[in-house]
Amino acid sequence: MVSTILLLLPITQKQNAELAFIDGVFISISAVTVTGLSTADVSQLLSVPGMFIFTIILQFGGIGIVAFGTILWLSGKKIGLGARILMTTEQNSPTFSRIVQFIRMIFFFFVMIELLGAVVLCAVL
Fold this sequence. Notes:
The chain is built from seven helices and no strands. By secondary structure, the protein is mainly alpha-helical. The two termini are 30 Å apart.
């Protein structure tokens, strides 16, 4: 619902465009589930802030809610033995040494590839 509300804000829509509530719901759910379906032309309806919010919603859906929560969890604290064992089990790893570095490396490469794609798209558009 938060993504729907964000997409329906006046700042996220172009001046002469109007996004219906049901279309906003459908587009935001489609973005979170990464299906890519849309009932309207998003490029004609959303302003630059709207496209930014839409992209964040897509990324949140793409990386996954659980993975995103794990990355936020790893960002600021020391990871104990129990948490390392849990992450090792989740990653199907035979050992739990360096599992935290491995997950951080995955996130780092994910962000770098996404930024590279954003730069290329901005250069093309």
